[in-house]
Amino acid sequence: MSMAQNYKPKFGSSASSDRKSSASSDRKYQPERDHVRARRQVQITTPHVIEEPTDEDSPSIEEETSDRPTLRHFTGGLSRPNTQSSRARRRSASAKKKKTISNDLWPRILIAAAALVVLAGGSVALYFSNAFPITNVTVAGNSKLQSGYVIKLADVPENSTFFRADVKSIRERLLAEPWIQDASVERGFPDTIVLRITEQPIAAVVSIVPETAIDKVQQWVIAPDGTWIAEVEEDVVGQARINAEELLKLPKIKDISAAVRPEPGLLETDEGINNALALLAGFSPEMRAMVSVISAPDAVKTSLTLSNNVSVAFGAAEDIELKERTIATLLAEHEGTITSINVRVADRPSVRTTEQQT
Predict the structure, then answer these.
(1) Which of 8, 41, 100, 106 has the fewest C-beta atoms under 10 angstroms from its C-beta?
(2) CATH entry, 136-199, from 1.10.10.10, 3.30.450.20, 3.10.20.310, 3.30.1050.10
(3) How many whole angstroms separate alpha carbon 347 and alpha carbon 319?
(4) Residue 83's pLDDT is what?
(5) φ, ψ at 344 (rounded to 5°)
């Protein structure tokens, strides 16, 4: 018992002493730790700057989250994304897009090319084949020429097909006829050719001086541009049929040079004839209807015979409108008594009447 009592106070004294020593030690270094903590709190924290990523697969500054501070957060948003990296990304995206488009187009191009080759081959085969032969030829626009003659003139080859018909050659054969002023050749699917023609208009009937005294005077129809069409033989003029009444209504050109020898389809160069045609082209429809005969030995001596038998010394095809008005005025002023008018000089006309003759 004595030993236990002696030991216990000793243990208790030592432990107490150690706790006191520890507490004293804590109190001794406590002020120093507080001082260090205070210094750390006062120290300014340096911001952590995150550099711009250079890898094109790395997220850009705009993709940073709000809980991850960047230089933009500390500089008020003054920092800019790396433009070089952005351009590289755009170029890469554009290149990928072009590559995708190119990959998509190539099959289409190959398919289209193959289709064109097949189509071209089919067209060539169809052109040289005997498919769609021409079995029907029709004529349109003719009034004086008979359709059978126009078809014969066109001479469409028997082996012609819708695709192989030589429309250019057919048209050339049609235009060789003086009665045809213009022509077009049209295809009608699947077996038809249409010959559409415009017949030559007639300006006048020209009396041709016979070569010898025993020859008869020939009558030829001539176009407004001076093209000889054909000789008149009763109601047949070349290959055309013209009503006799229609021929009588046409102006007659006479007293021409004996050197004039007409040929179908050729242009006439005679001065008198061309001057007479110029007058007819320049007259009003009313005046042209009044002209019955034109004497045309040359341009200066050209004269008219009107339907009322009044003769008009007209002269060259100049001041046609003024001369025509003068003729109309004089006819009105001397109605029933006038026999001749001279308007070769347009501003100095003259007139003769039956009263003057008596």
Answers:
(1) 41
(2) 3.10.20.310
(3) 10
(4) 58
(5) -60, -35
pLDDT at residue 194, rounded to an integer = 97
User: How many other CB atoms sit within 10 Å of the CB of residue 178?
Assistant: 20
3 state DSSP class of 295: strand
Task: Look up tokens 């407004």; give the residue.
Answer: 224
List CB contacts of 183: < 8 A, sequence separation 6 or more: 171, 174, 175, 195, 196, 197, 198
- Collapse the DSSP code of 253 into the 3-class scheme (helix H, G, I; strand E, B; otherwise coil) and give the result: strand
Question: For residue 273, which of 288, 254, 287, 258 has the smallest C-alpha distance?
Answer: 254
Backbone angles phi, psi at 328, to 5 degrees: -65, -40
Q: Give 205's strand partners.
A: 221, 252
Q: Which two tokens mark 118?
A: 């097949």
**Chain length of the chain:** 358
Domain positions in the chain are 1-43, 93-128, 136-199, 204-357
- Amino acid letter, residue 179: W
- Sign for the pseudo-dihedral over CA of 64, 66, 71, 76: positive
Measure CA 295 to chain center: 49
- Report pLDDT for 111: 74
* CA dist list (Å): 2 to 7, 10, 15, 16, 243: 9, 13, 21, 22, 177
What is the rounded distance in angstroms from the CA atom of residue 349 to the CA atom of residue 172?
Answer: 50
* Distance in angstroms (rounded) separating the CA atoms of residues 145 and 229: 13
**CATH number listed for the domain at residues 204-357:** 3.40.50
* C-beta separation of 202 from 229 below 8 A: yes
Residue 189 has pLDDT above 50, yes or no: yes
Please list the residues that pair with 306 across neighbouring strands. 291
Radius of gyration of the chain (CA): 57
Is the pTM of the predicted complex or chain greater than 0.70?
A: no
For residue 109, name the pLDDT band (cuts at 50, 70, 90).
confident
Q: How far is CA 62 from CA 36, 47, 65, 351, in A?
A: 39, 19, 8, 107
